[in-house]
Amino acid sequence: MKKVLVIQEDIIILKILERLTRLNGFDCKAIRSLSALNIEDQQTNFDFIITDILFEGIAPLQFVAQVQEVLLHKNLLIVTNMGQDKIKQEIFNLRGITGFYAVPIDLDEIEAIIQAY
Amino acid sequence: MNESSILILIGFVFAVLVIYWISIVISVIYRRNRTKRLQKIEMTFAEIVSGYLYNDPNDPLTLTEINKTLKNVGIKKQNKNNIQFLIGLMIRTQRTILGTNFYKLQKLYSQIPPYRVSINKISSWSWYRKARGIREIYEMNQSQYLDEIFKYRNHRNIYVRREAQIALVVFLGWESLRFLPYLKRNMTLWQQIKIVEKLYDHYPKPELKWLHRAYKTERLFGKKLLMRIIRKYELHAETGYIVDNLNHEDYEVRETAIYCLQTFALSKSKISYVKVLFEDITDPTQQGQLLNYLYHNSEMDLDFYMKQLNNASDDLKLSIAEILWNNGYKEKVQEFYYKQYPAETELNVE
């Protein structure tokens, strides 16, 4: 079964994304911060990671870099409240980012990407 | 002071301390329970919204179940604080979602409690509750209450009329500009920005018919608002309106016009018109800003700059001389410099 990891501090977006991925046939792990991960998760190669970039105690770019370094994955989607053009540009400069969606988001776009996988 | 009175005093102080400690304990317990309750409501609401937007065909979530679940976590008429918290969650959620799901949410909100809490707030005496009620209605897109809100567009309280005007923009979009000439009270800069942003978020496609009609407005805030709209939507064909206001008699209107103009590049004919208007501007600072714009956005026009060098105020002369100096007209600047002194004056140069 294809696997997705959703990391969102906002519980409502977290639950919606969890539900969306599950209904599309993915095995979803939904967490509110990186500290909720266990060793097994670090060995899993996720098909998608859908994450926010705004977390306490860590800069957005550093967070993305950390996720890319620590977690095995094939695609990385960013869904965040922090949608300024500058941030978007800097995130894409990091490479390996599949998509960047700033709030307000059209969930159909995310669903289309997941279904096309 | 004898022994017994000291004992009474100690007893009294001790009693006060005990009461104080007990109240702290009660407050801590209350806050802990309250936080737990709010977290539970948030979690339940998240489950409901996610279940409603992506309903599992094998285990469908019905409206009866949704209403029952909400009631069980404390969303009842008598618990006003819980209801207010839920409204906050509803608005937050709707703001984060676009597309078909946005309309699905709108439908959900019309079917779950609180049914009429926001509209009831509008009839309250307190301006704060009134403004809050209007805001909740437009944030949750309950357009059926538009007529109720419409009455408050000229309300004496700035916050109430501000929210009512934003509601008109949210519900009517570009058509709301129709009311601009009839607004009686001033609109602050903050409000203008908010209106422009709301219009852009909800109606990204411009409808010029309404914009052209609004040009008739004589209100200063109206002119400023329209220029900001032209700037936000990058309406290149409408820059004439901004240019026409460059020499307006009001300082702030001119300021807004210069600010908005900086987003656009103008055609040659418009640039020459701006140069004509340049001389009508009475404020040297604003002239300086416009000069800067002209320098960066048009070709070098020696005649114009020489004319300004001889006629403009002293504050501007240095900037004009700098432009000429840096663009290969050193000798013109030198000539102008020497011309200021009579021929017989002994210059302090070797």
Automatic annotation (TrEMBL), chain A:
The modification 4-aspartylphosphate is found at residue 52. InterPro entries: CheY-like_superfamily, Sig_transdc_resp-reg_receiver. Residues 3-117 form the Response regulatory domain. Keywords: Phosphoprotein. One of its GO terms (biological process) is phosphorelay signal transduction system. This is Response regulator receiver domain-containing protein. The lineage of its organism: Bacteria, Pseudomonadati, Bacteroidota, Flavobacteriia, Flavobacteriales.
UniProtKB/TrEMBL annotation, chain B:
Keywords: Membrane, Transmembrane, Transmembrane helix. InterPro entries: ARM-type_fold. SUPFAM superfamilies: ARM repeat (SSF48371). The chain crosses the membrane at residues 6-30. The keyword Transmembrane applies. This is HEAT repeat protein.
